[in-house]
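Example record

The entry below shows one chain as it appears in the dataset: sequence first, then structure tokens.
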Amino acid sequence: MDFGFIISNAAGEIFSPTTAAYALAALGLAVHFGYSGLLNFGQAGFMAVGAYGFAISTLTFNVPFFVGLLIAVVLASIFALLLGIPTLRLRADYLAIVTIASAEIVRYIVTTNQLTSVTGSANGLAAFEGGFYDMNPFPAGDYFGMNNRDFFIRIVGWGLVVLCCTLVWLLMRSPWGRVLKGIREDENAVRSLGKNVYAYKMQALVIGGVLGALAGMIFTLPRGAVQPANYGTELTFFLYTCLLLGGLGTVLGPVIGAMIFWVVLSLTQGLLFGAIESGAITFLNTVQAGQLRFILVGVALMLLMIFRPQGVFGNKKELAFA
């Protein structure tokens, strides 16, 4: 078993584009749940709307990259409005039910055979990333062991993470953010002060959804393909794992949580696969080992919630609303 190779692969996940996408999506959940108390179980749906909105607009209408980006953001905002209008005046559990169902509805719609010419059905869509890589300023060559395309998507992905974290940090330090945190703690008290709780919740739902849409784009660009199987319900729960690892009501927490999540996943997979290939483990095959790593991560998350429920960067005050 090559421990050096396993550790280097795990370390490489810290700044991978996928980790950046998870960080962005988990930051959106932090706006929803960590700061606003909105129980959104459909963040995977927002990611799918962003990814498919960008891919379809690029392939079908041949729009420039930034126009496709704008379309993805607008579609995510409309999706948030459609979810929020009937549910945000009701109890939080209604939003949870609606969002988890709507994410599945989006996934089933894009797999419909009648829409194959537009969405690609179960096979998804591919070859829509050309406009993005046309903007790559880095010439062909080696950049810290990466080619120019990999290096460019990492720069863009993590640059977007830094920008969005800064914006969320500024928002949560503003009077708007303080009202939002007040709604999380006791929305009736905020309503008694004359604030429009419904409007604030809707704004938070839209902002977190847009972050999810941007994450969906970053998630698909390195692959050059968008497939509905990648946006199942388990994706949202992975994002909640990242959020809980880092801390609910924090800005950096989701980012650190995403890094830890992917490093641990890569490390456990490398160790398990290496042990199977070396013969140290004979009662598992690689398929079973792939499932076992998620079990191990789940056990680690349960231990974290028992011994440090506020996460790595969170504090116990942020748990008062839970």
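Notes for this example: The chain is about 70% helix and 0% strand. Strands lie at 125-126, 225-226.
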